[in-house]
């Protein structure tokens, strides 16, 4: 793309040392994509010269969402879609299926970085999508497309282009089977924002989470449903991750997690069963595995319930990933419920962090969580003492606990 000496030049022009207060800081203007749930995660919209990385499993909907977004943005701005994954015909077919305005989207099916650069120089787009970085390669390196060296170098060159030309760039990265290797993770530090798709490819719901954002809040969630006309935003997602049980079942506990500005009710499921090996299994999907081992130790030490000879499996329904410790109490009550083979109280929600000393710690925005649960028809809640609402919430009986043992005592 550029000569070897220039390849490693700094991004900023060399400049004098100056006082921070003397630098004029301007609010960056944002260009909404017109897709509300995407704008929400981006922190309001696309920013000129910013580079966004969108990662996710193959087939989760990255190309679909970006084509929908580009078609909308293209109405007012100059947009270019560079695809190394699909042929022009395939993309045209998809655009037809999505019923988007294809006239405004310029398309290039190309994987060689130097040729992409040449097109960027002539087309001068305001917004460009590179789908995906793993297919792009540069002639200056020997290694195959998709290798760590190629992915890094191509992303760095493209980022440099975006910064120097004020182009908004969206780079797609597949999460590879090998995990971190050559996947989007190796690029996180280069780009301005990192968004990840989450969700179970078998269910129709998709979440997009910002895990890094130089221009907005992180941990904001965008929620979509995959339909036959592409991805549709879900503006009121709080009840999506509850499974519908006719009767309350053992091992199920509903928690309220607060992701970004919206509370979300998620069903946590546990299965505790006799282990048939000297090393019982601890497996967790959507929740932290190491934390599960720790929580089980706390359960034994501070509530007298041991599961040394039991396998313990934990799952957050719907492919959601919950990182916040507010899930602790729900995880443990689900475990206790499965172990005793007795369902928890119907229409009950639980949240709270559990400490190593067996204490139940408060979580942020407890009131909002409770109100959302009440709105969805839940009538009982077990929460940390400090999260007890100051004014009662209509239709909701709140049990505030200080210790794990108090919460376990509430279970049947
Ligand atoms: P895609 O955007 O190609 O995924 P990625 O770019 O992340 O690899 O999504 C492909 C999946 O989405 C595919 O399994 C079919 C499904 N899909 C729909 O259900 N409806 C649609 O309108 C489209 C375009 C795709
Ligand atoms: Mg794709």
CATH names the topology of the largest domain as Rossmann fold
Look at the structure and give the mean pLDDT.
Answer: 90
Pairing-aware structural class of the strands and helices? alpha/beta
Q: What ions, cofactors and ligands are bound?
A: thymidine-5'-diphosphate, magnesium ion
Helix content: 25-40%
Number of domains: 2
Identify low-pLDDT runs.
none
Number of helices: 10
Succession of helices and strands:
HEHEEHEHEHEHEEEEEEEEHEHEEEHEEH
* Strand element count: 20
- CATH homology superfamily name of the largest domain: P-loop containing nucleotide triphosphate hydrolases
| The top level CATH class name of the largest domain | Alpha Beta
Describe the main β-sheet briefly.
9 strands, mixed
Explain how this protein is built.
This protein is 26% helix and 26% strand. It is an alpha/beta fold and 412 residues long. The chain folds into two domains: 25-233, P-loop containing nucleotide triphosphate hydrolases (Rossmann fold, 3-Layer(aba) Sandwich); 252-409, 2-Layer Sandwich (Ribosomal Protein S5, domain 2). The strands form four sheets. Strands 5-4-6-7-3-8-9-10-11 form a nine-stranded mixed beta sheet, with helices on both faces. The protein has a seven-stranded mixed beta sheet with strand order 14-15-13-12-16-19-20. A two-stranded antiparallel ribbon has the order 1-2. The structure holds thymidine-5'-diphosphate and magnesium ion. The site of magnesium ion has 4 residues, from helix 3.
